[in-house]
Prior knowledge:
By secondary structure, this protein is mainly α. Helix content is 49%, strand content 0%.
Amino acid sequence: MVVRWALFGAYAFLGGSGRIAPERAHAFLVRFDDERLARGGDMAWDGWSGTVALLGFRDLAERRERAVADARLLSDDEGAAVFASTLAKAEAGDPSRFPDHGLGYLDDAIAEREATLPGDEEDEHEPGEPVHNPLRHVGRNDPCPCGSGRKFKKCCLEAA
């Protein structure tokens, strides 16, 4: 699920940098919505929504509203404001919208990789020690411990 979301980010960046023609990107986003190429609640829909905004396709904003109403997007707590702001930046040609969403070229791939490696965090265990699941007491139908207000099975359990 996270992979599809990330792929939409890459697609948006490639579209915004001219590597994918706007007409082709628009057609793909319409097709993704028309054919419901992901199930409701899949992170791909959040990626789709972000791509619509990043590429400045205001004519698809109504489709995003329908996706929110149909509960296809994971959450819309702050999403509407971020969507509107990103869409406005795209229409103004503001290139900062991509770095604002963590999208861009890697300057140093090794440094980027090292930054994503786990550090000396308290919850890490020593080799040979048993690993304990911190979510072992959370049931599928319990509220998600992340605080989203959604059921665990429709939130963080799907991402695991």
